Amino acid sequence: MRSVDWTVLVVLTLLIMVVGVFYTRSAAAKGQEGFFTANRNLSWWSLGISNAATYQSGLGGFVMLIFLFGFSGNWLWWAQWIIWMPMVAIIWSKMWQRMKIVTTAELISLRYGGRTSVFARRIYALVMCLFSIITMAYITGFFAKTLAPLVPMSMVSILLLFGTITLIYTLLGGLMGSVMVSVVQMAVMILGSLVFLGIIIPQSGGWASILSKVQELRPEALSLNPVSDITPPLTLIMFVILGLFFAGSPTAGEGMTAQRFMAAKNERHALGGQLFSSFISLCVRIVPLIGLGIICITMFWADDLVTKYGQIPAGFRMLEDPAFAWGEIVKASRLPLGFTGLLVATEVAAYMSTLSALINWGSSFIVNDFYKELKPALDRKQEIRISRMTTLILFVVAAIIAILFVDDMVSWFLFINSVVVIFWLPLAYFRFFWPRFNVWGEMAATVLGIPLTVLFWFILDFQNKPIWQGTGMLFLIALTVISLVTLITPAESDETLQRFYLRCRPPAGWKKLRLKYPSLPGHDQSLRSQVIDCLTGIAACFGLAMATNAVFAGNWLVIISCGCVAIGFGALLVKRSL
Fold first, then answer.
1. Which of 268, 285, 335, 388 counts the highest number of beta carbons within 10 A?
2. Beta partners for 300?
3. What angle do CA 353, 283, 210 make, to 5 degrees?
4. Which pLDDT tens digit goes with each residue over 391-442?
5. pLDDT tens-digit readout, 282-330
6. Measured between alpha carbons, how far is 388 from 32 in angstroms, rounded to an integer?
7. Are 246 and 252 in contact (CB under 8 A)?
8. Is the Cβ–Cβ distance between 373 and 386 less than 8 Å?
């Protein structure tokens, strides 16, 4: 990068930091609760945009998937997301908002009783904190590789520069600072990527020429069929099953997403924010990245094509690592003065939005569910000081793990998004819809989750086997173990269950209490109606996903038909639910 690029990058990064610092006072106004819940004042638009920015974590990952697998690469995550996103909006977002808690770990004290629930809450808090550290390490490793072709800096240097900036505004602004910065970052990400795509398409001979070249080199890359070599039927079926349970995943309906639901103004804002996030996440944010990934196929040469031709044809280059694809395409393009700095700023924005959310979310467990439980007499200034100190420590530990352990990015992508969360997925239903479920089942899921997934994925090497095998075996083990542990241990008391129901009001599984309290808010919509809404949302999201890929394939039949499905079912869902 030239000096003018660095100037653009510095200016945009400082602007982002100023936005975060602006919310320092409001973050500290109500102690740790205000710091971690934004004073429960998030509107639907800020919730939706910030959640979508949180899911982004980087631009290079999506470009890498399209470069490696073509349009099918999107179905490695779409297959789950088109299911869990509308389901979480319609069912779980309202329940999280109703409970008025600070963290998802606090749910354990509400859902279960006795001393065991106190211990379980602390264990859960520590495990979720560990998960946030692992995820921070993963996105940091990906971020460093994405920038490597453009910024001649080591991972340590990148962490010290961009990680420290993120840390500063997160330390000062809390969740509100993190959310409002994410709104700015999402605007920078989308605008910068769209303009870049508009610049590079003519340089590559126009879109028709790009498609013709890809058709010649890798015709399977342009297939709109969700079923492919990388997503065979068994893998898609497994992803669909997991998607039905992803309300219990810290990377999906729980975790940072639930934290924002709990910070929403009311249930309508929580639901509307998640629906808005679905549209941005499944379509808007990745539109330019799909195009860039397809263009990468025409510029760089994959190993399997070397086998086909026996050599690297003129005009192509090998990539040392597929994670370099985004950086290399920027490097190979003819860009206006300072535009490289803008594009690096878009990647920085994607990284910092997710890192900030993870730091804030992870530290909230230590402060709210561990430290504050041990020392409840803290005043507001002490709470904020401890919150910030914990935030700093989490970042340092994550940085060390990123430097020492994060390597194969495709494997890590699947591990973070689909594997490590599997043992927690049944909790999405068991906690809310099975009154017999108890604290021992909760602890079984919490304690066994990370060790067993690491064992299967890395040590037993299921990362190099069909995806459905490892995920399927882990899911069956999780369901079996958690159910058995629950059934052979004592049930929760009626008083505990009643206390939880009155705060949460789940739509199913609590018939006795539902009949006892028929006039409670939230009883106005039947389970059947919510199931219909979920199916409507899934249909809308499926149409949106199909139409998004079809735009780049130039298939007007799919664009029009699936676009109508997305618009029609989407409008019906909004009318029914809002």
1. 285
2. 317
3. 110
4. 677 777 777 776 666 555 566 667 777 788 898 999 999 999 999 999 999 9
5. 999 899 999 999 998 888 865 555 545 555 555 556 666 777 788 888 8
6. 10
7. yes
8. no
Q: How far apart are the first and last CA of the chain?
A: 48
- Distance (Å, whole) CA 242 – CA 500: 26
CB-based contact 275:571 (threshold 8 Å): no
> What 3 state SS string does 469-527 have?
HHHHHHHHHHHHHHHHHHHCCCCCCHHHHHHHHHHHCCCCCCHHHHHHCCCCCCCCCCH
Which helix (H) or strand (E) element contains residue 79? helix 75-87
- Max Cα separation, the chain? 76
CA distance 548 to 284: 9
Burial of 153 (0-12, 13-18, 19+ CB in 10 A): middle
- Find, among 88, 37, 530, the residue nearest to 271 by Cα: 88
Mention every residue, 6+ apart, whose C-beta is less than 8 A from residue 521.
Answer: 505
Which amino acid, 240?
V
Specify which residues 318 forms β-bridges with.
301
d(CA 366, CA 105): 10
**Which helix H or strand E contains 531, and what residues bound it?**
helix 527-553
Please tell me the distance from the alpha carbon of residue 97 to that of residue 520, in angstroms, as a whole number: 15
- In order of 132, 160, 278, 356, 364, the CA distances from 164 in angstroms are 17, 6, 30, 11, 19
Select from 335, 394, 417, 305 the least CA-distant residue to 61.
Answer: 417
* The pair of three-digit structure tokens given for residue 361, joined into one six-digit string: 């979310």
Q: How far is CA 353 from the centre of its chain?
A: 11
The helix or strand, by DSSP H or E, that contains position 70, with its residue range, turns out to be none
Rounded to two decimals, the pTM is 0.84
Determine which helix (DSSP H) or strand (DSSP E) holds 389, and give its type and residue range: helix 380-405
Q: How far is the CA of 354 from the CAs of 22, 83, 537, in angstroms?
A: 19, 22, 26
pLDDT higher than 70, residue 170 = no
CB 219 within 8 A of CB 83: no
Q: What is the mean pLDDT of residues 329-347?
A: 84
Nearest 10 degrees: CA dihedral of 179, 184, 188, 189? 10
Supply the angle between the helices 339-365 and 3-22 in degrees, to the nearest 10. 30
Query: Which secondary-structure segment (H or E) carries 436?
Result: none
How many other C-beta atoms are found inside a 10 Å radius of the C-beta of residue 19? Answer: 18
Residues 6+ apart with CB under 8 A from 416: 134, 135, 138, 251
Taking each helix axis from N to C end, the angle separating 339-365 and 115-147, rounded to the nearest 10 degrees, works out to 170
Residue pair 394/133 in contact by the 8 Å Cβ criterion: yes
Tokens of 360: 């804030």
Q: Where are the beta strands (DSSP E) in 238-293?
A: none
- The string of DSSP letters for 306-366 reads HHHHSS--TT-EE-S-GGGHHHHHHHHS---TTHHHHHHHHHHHHHHHHHHHHHHHHHHHI
Question: Two tokens at 199?
Answer: 């610049």
Gap between the Cα atoms of 154 and 116, Å rounded: 46
Residues 78 and 282: beta-carbon distance below 8 Å? yes
Number of Cβ atoms within 10 Å of the Cβ of 109: 17
